[in-house]
């Protein structure tokens, strides 16, 4: 008997598929390897219920290569402001790649309680900017706001190692009891505590804890894709219709950076990213 379900966990060659209210551990057909098909967490699939075999992967709405997950509605980006220190370059990189993959970015700042008074003022200015240009921005203490933003969605929680992803999941659902670890003082960043991608059901949404990463890249992305992912640039009309906002004259985006209307770090990161693609 064939039944439809969703892959919620992959460990080695074992695929855990949620079918209705039960989770079935399945093996994949050998045909998948021959056809170069790689099942991902988040995939909708058909399984042989009696024999516990993964039979077919259904069409995907979207997917990410790192972390490897499919059919995502939103990405909750956990941004540490201290231990590890804030990296706006990494934040903008994740926003761009997530947006290019047609996934909604939601920005969640963590560890604001570790900041000094003056540091907190600067961080609040940055948070205000990202909110002004159109992103949902919150902090990890406001659980009610986070739950509201994730309602009825399939979500990937991501960010640099040690930013507090697993800790936040434990607060959203105390029954998860996911492993967390201290920050490495010698490296100034967190130690890996999540070893595989897994979808967890929390009230009315699914969320995936993922291995921490900092080496995501723009593989297979085009320069135009990167440009479109910087949404505040659309508020300006340049002298050239296909302006790259780099070396061209009469570029209103560059003027906006000089006036302080566009965050300088955002523009500098944009230039770095288009050079990479």
Could you please describe the fold and organization of this structure?
With 277 residues, this protein is of the alpha/beta class. Helix content is 28%, strand content 28%. It is built from 8 helices and 15 strands. A 6-stranded mixed sheet has the order 10-9-8-11-15-14, with helices on both faces. Residues 182-194 have low confidence and may be disordered.
What's the layout of helices and strands?
Blueprint: E1 2-11, E2 14-19, E3 22-28, H1 30-34, E4 44-48, E5 53-57, E6 63-65, E7 68-70, E8 74-80, H2 88-100, E9 104-110, H3 117-132, E10 136-139, H4 143-150, E11 154-159, H5 165-172, E12 183-184, E13 189-190, E14 198-202, E15 205-209, H6 223-229, H7 252-259, H8 264-276
Helix pairs in contact: 2-6, 2-8
Task: Provide a compact summary of the structure.
The chain has 8 helices and 15 strands.
Q: Main traits of this protein?
A:
single chain, 277 residues, alpha/beta, six-stranded mixed beta sheet, five-stranded mixed beta barrel, 8 helices, 15 strands, 28% strand
